[in-house]
Every structure is written in C-alpha cells, then in structure tokens.
Design goal:
Layout lengths: L1 H9 L7 H8 L3 H13 L3 E5 L3 E6 L6 H4 L12 E4 L5 H8 L8 E4 L20 E8 L10 H16 L5 E3 L3 E4 L2 E12 L4 E11 L18 H5 L5 H22 L3 H9 L7 E6 L2 E10 L5 E4 L5 E4 L3 E3 L7
Parallel strand pairs: 3-4
Antiparallel strand pairs: 1-2, 4-5, 5-9, 6-7, 7-8, 8-9, 10-11, 10-14, 11-12, 12-13
Amino acid sequence: MKNKVLHILKNTPDYISGEEISKEFHMTRAAIWKHIKALREEGYVIDSMPSKGYKLISSPDLLIYEEIEEYLDSKFIARNILHYDSIDSTNKKAKEIAPISQEGSVVIGEEQTGGRGRMGRSWLSPKFKGIWMSIILKPNIEPMKVSRLTLLGAAAVYRALELNGIRAQIKWPNDILLEGKKICGILTEMSAELNIVDFIVMGIGVNVNFDQGDIPEDLRARASSIKIYRGEKINRKELAAQILNEFEKLYIDFKETGDIGQSIKICRENSILLGEEVRIIRGDETLLVRALDISEDGGLLVEFPDGSMENMYSGEVSLRGIDQA
C-alpha cells in the first residue's frame, strides 16, 4: 500500500489531500499518514500543508521498481524487482529464488557485502555507488550455449553507455572498460541438467558513482567509474533501466531465433583485445596468443605463435595493463 501512495504522489503534479488519497484506497487518513511517514524515512521529501495536502518534492537515489519504472520500456525484464538495502550477493539470492520466480525478475542491492566476479574474486560493491543487479533468465537452450549470453550482457551495457554519449571498450567476454580501466563486470551462472537449462542468472556490476578515494589504491591503475570518467554524478536509476531495456531487446532476438549477431557485432567493433597479444589462462596452462576475432557463436578466435588457430570459449584473458578480474 505504501507503494500505491507513492505512485499517486508521483503522478500528481500539485498537492493532493489526505482525504482524496484515503478515498482512493479506502483507508483512514491516519493510515495514509503512516505511509507518508515511512516514505519520508526512506528519503522521499514530501511537503505537507494543512489546506492542500501532500506533494512529492524529491525522490531518493534508490534502485527500487517505483524509481526505475519511469525509465523502463521493457516488456518483462525488470517488471518484478526484488530490492535490498544490503545483500551479500545478488547472484546468490537470484539463484535461491530462480526456481519460483518469473523470467526477467531482477535482484538489486544498494550494496553487496560478498559480491563476486569471475573465478570467485571479490567485487567491491559499496552502498549507493554502483549498480549491483542479477537478472533471472529461463531460455530453452542447451547448456553449452549459455556462455553466449554473457556477450548479450556486455553489448547491453555498451549500448546503455552509448546512449549517454560514452564510448566504452569491451574485453571479451565479460568486462567493460573506460580508458583501459574496468568499470563493469558480468558474471553468468546457470543451473542445468544434461541437456536442459533450468535457469540462468546474469549478474551485472557497474561502478557508477565511485570517487577516486572509493577505489583501493592498488586497484586504481586498473579500475575506475563512470563518474570519474565523466567528472559528474550519474543518474543510477536511468542507467540501470537503460541497461535492462537494451538487454531485453537483444535477449528477445536470441530467444526467438538463437541469433547473437547484433551482440557479436557490438563486441567485435568495440573490442580492446582484437589484434593484440593476450595471455589466456585455461586450467593449469597459460597461453600467449594473438586475438584475431570474435566468432559468430561468441568464441574468441586466437592465433598461436606457430600460426595455428583455435576458437576459445572459456579462459581468463589479460592484456598488458588490464586486470583480468
């Protein structure tokens, strides 16, 4: 009911009386006051005047559905958002609830206390400084094709940044960089049987409004934020919605046709790896190769020193001066 009161305040440009709200929801004015008080405690600035009623003055920087909704144009992605003020890991929670959740549900945390990147590495996720979210997906695909979805996530983040006039770089398969420094990581996990995917969870972490001092000194050469790059605070709510909107467009095409051509094109044209010598760690072996291309099925085509080539689908990739986390 509190969210319904918020909705009516958001959609009323002028003051609205407590009596009107109480009639709308068949509640007492005392009950309406309790919801107004709760909203104020969450950071909403609501003016009240005895003769006029209530008016929403400003909203807090929260990634709740009621704040993101105005920027969403998706059909099903993020139409159900589970929001947490603090959570250990959005991916962990998403995996717990995925079996009983509708596809497109999103878990968002204002901070993560146990955020993870690839290979189990920790991911710095301070409160109100970034976008920490996990999308629950249930495509009818074989487990071996799941890795392709990471490229859809990378392409969606790239497109969202481009909408804001930011040209990023993509480090296959899951990192987004600005000026060679990582600002986003994507972690895709799944639950599957032999030939059937039960669900997929795609975690997306974006360093949005970090200041330089928020980044540990030993990571400053390899990590940054959009705010540091732009020199101004970014609207997290709008950016989160843009990422989710762009992801749905690419994902629907993938679900309907199996095609990831658009995502491959974006990742290929904006890759920081292609044409460069890279180091790939695969299991216990370290390979020094040249990255040639991203194949049509999402693999990284590399050339070995002896001239032989291979299409790789997994492995940690590093380029001089860039963290492989």
